[in-house]
Write a structure and sequence with these properties.
Layout: H1 3-24, H2 33-40, H3 45-59, H4 79-90, H5 105-108, H6 111-122, H7 138-148, H8 150-153, H9 173-184, H10 193-198, H11 204-215
Helix pairs in contact: 2-4, 2-6, 3-6, 4-6, 7-11, 9-11
Bound molecules: heme C (HEC) (2 copies).
One heme C binds near residues 153, 168, 195 and 198.
Length: about 240
C-alpha cells in the first residue's frame, strides 16, 4: 500500500470521527450555556458600543459588512439571532476561524458582553444598497422563495426573532450564497435541520436565483438608513 493511500485512509477516519462527534452534539438550538444566559440579561448599550469597536474592524462601523460578501451585514439582525450565532461561534458549533479569536471572552467578555453587543447591533439601521445578484432569474427565485422559505424566513425575508430565524432580506448576495451552500452541503454545523432538509434538492442555479431574489427584498423603511449614512458613534 502506498504512503498516499495510507494518509488518505487516516484522513477519512478523522473525518468519520468528527462527523460522529457532530452527531452526538446537542440538538439544534439546544446548546444552552452562554446563549441561554445572554438571552436573560439586561443589555447595556454603552458597553455594547465599546464591544462593537472590535467588531467594526471587519463588519464596519455601520454594521453593513462588505458587498463582496467577505463580512456579512449585521445591522438590523434580530437580537436573538445575533446572540445564538455569537454563542455558536464561540462554542465552535459554527466555524468562523477569521472571527473566532476576536469573539472570545478574553477579548470581549462573557455572556453580558454578548447581550450588550447584540442589542447594540440589532438597532443599527440597515444598508440601503446591499450587494445583489445578476438579476437574471428573479421569477424563478421568487417562486422558490415562496414555496420553500416563507414558513421560516417570513413573507419578505424579515425572519422571526423569537424563533431564531434570521432576517435575510437586504443581506449581501455573495454572503447569502456562501451560507446557503454551506447549509445545503452540511458545512455549517449549527444550521437548522429542517432547513437543510428543505433545500437538499436545490441546484446551484436554484440557489443563485433564490438568493438574488432575497438580496433585493427591501427591509421596512423604519429600519433602513439613508444612502451614505455614517455611524455617529464612531465620530
Ligand atoms: C477579523 C474579522 C472579524 C471580526 C473582528 C468580527 N467578525 Fe463577525 N464575522 C466575520 C466573518 C468573516 C463572518 C462570516 C463567516 C462566514 O462566512 O460564515 C462573521 C460573521 C458574524 C456573525 C454571523 C452573522 C450571520 O448572519 O449569521 C455574527 C453575529 C458576527 N460575525 C458578529 C460579530 C461580533 C459581535 C464581533 C465583535 C465582537 C465580530 N463579529 C467580529 C468576521 C469578523
Ligand atoms: C425550517 C425553517 C427554515 C426553512 C424552511 C428555511 N430556513 Fe433558512 N434558516 C433557518 C434558520 C433557523 C437559520 C439559522 C441557522 C442557525 O441556527 O444557525 C437559517 C439560515 C439561513 C441563511 C443564513 C443566514 C445568515 O445570516 O447567515 C440563509 C441564507 C437562509 N437560511 C436561506 C434560506 C432560504 C433561501 C430558504 C428557502 C429556500 C430557507 N432558508 C429555508 C430556518 C429555515
Amino acid at each position: 500500500m502506498t504512503a498516499t493511500r495510507l494518509l488518505h485512509m487516516a484522513a477519512t477516519a478523522v473525518v468519520a470521527a468528527t462527523l460522529a462527534m457532530g452527531g452526538a452534539m446537542a440538538g439544534w438550538n439546544e446548546s444552552g450555556g452562554e446563549q441561554e444566559e445572554a438571552l436573560t440579561l439586561k443589555p447595556d448599550l454603552e458597553n455594547g458600543l465599546e464591544v462593537y469597536e472590535v467588531c467594526a474592524a471587519c463588519h464596519m462601523p455601520e454594521g453593513w459588512g462588505m458587498e463582496d460578501g467577505t463580512f456579512p451585514q449585521l445591522a438590523g439582525q434580530h437580537k436573538n439571532v445575533l446572540i445564538k450565532q455569537l454563542a455558536d461561534i464561540r462554542a465552535l458549533n459554527r466555524d468562523n476561524p477569521t472571527m473566532y479569536p476576536f469573539a472570545l471572552p478574553k477579548s470581549i467578555g462573557g455572556a453580558q458582553a454578548i447581550a450588550d453587543v447584540a442589542a447594540y447591533i440589532a438597532k443599527l439601521p440597515m444598508n440601503p444598497q446591499p450587494g445583489v445578484g445578476p438579476g437574471t432569474d428573479l421569477a424563478l427565485g421568487e417562486k422558490l422563495y415562496k414555496e420553500n422559505c416563507v414558513r421560516c424566513h417570513a413573507e419578505n425575508g424579515e425572519g422571526i426573532d423569537e424563533k431564531y430565524y434570521p432576517r435575510i432580506q437586504g443581506q449581501h448576495y455573495k454572503y447569502l450564497v456562501r451560507q446557503f451552500e454551506w447549509i445545503r452541503d452540511g458545512k455549517r454545523r449549527n444550521a437548522n435541520p429542517d432547513m437543510v432538509k428543505q433545500i437538499q434538492g436545490f441546484s446551484d442555479k436554484d440557489m443563485q436565483a433564490v438568493m438574488d431574489y432575497v438580496s433585493r427584498l427591501k427591509p421596512p423603511d423604519k429600519i433602513l438608513a439613508p444612502v451614505g449614512w455614517e455611524n455617529p458613534d464612531f465620530d
